Amino acid sequence: MESYLNTLVVLETERLTIRKFIRDDLPALHAIMEKEEVMYAWEHGFAKKETRKWLGGQLKRYRKDGCGYYAVVLKETGTLIGQAGLLKNEIEGKEFVELDYIFDNSYWKRGYCMESVKACMGFACEELKLKELYCLIRPENEASIRIAEKTGMKKTGEHTK
């Protein structure tokens, strides 16, 4: 199993392995996504059925787009602590690549999100040769705004869903 998981690795940092999700990640992923505090941007914690659908969606994205949310795993323990990645998106006819991240609140304020975001940005610029990345962040999500700003991102506009 370990050699199979190694083929799924997309990025590594000092403390993190960033890899494609597998179906076996469902219990750990759901433990994160069922928390309202973590998923407030979606306005509710996810039921197991919603998490299963979300996971299936990521597996489809890998095949269709070549990217998606990736599992963020602590190297030291193998614990799934969140997800980060690159998502193809479109708003008002404009296609773009979105940098997105969701972390278990038990791991907030430890630098893991920033570490994974920097790794994803490096991958997007160096490997994928992207010139632009976007983050869609709710105005009240000050922590995510700070992360985006600390990585050099700037507000370019607003979008209402």
Automatic annotation (TrEMBL):
One of its GO terms (molecular function) is acyltransferase activity, transferring groups other than amino-acyl groups. Transmembrane segments: none annotated. Residues 16-161 form the N-acetyltransferase domain. InterPro entries: Acyl_CoA_acyltransferase (IPR016181), GNAT_dom (IPR000182), N-acetyltransferase (IPR051531). Pfam families: Acetyltransf_3. This is N-acetyltransferase domain-containing protein.
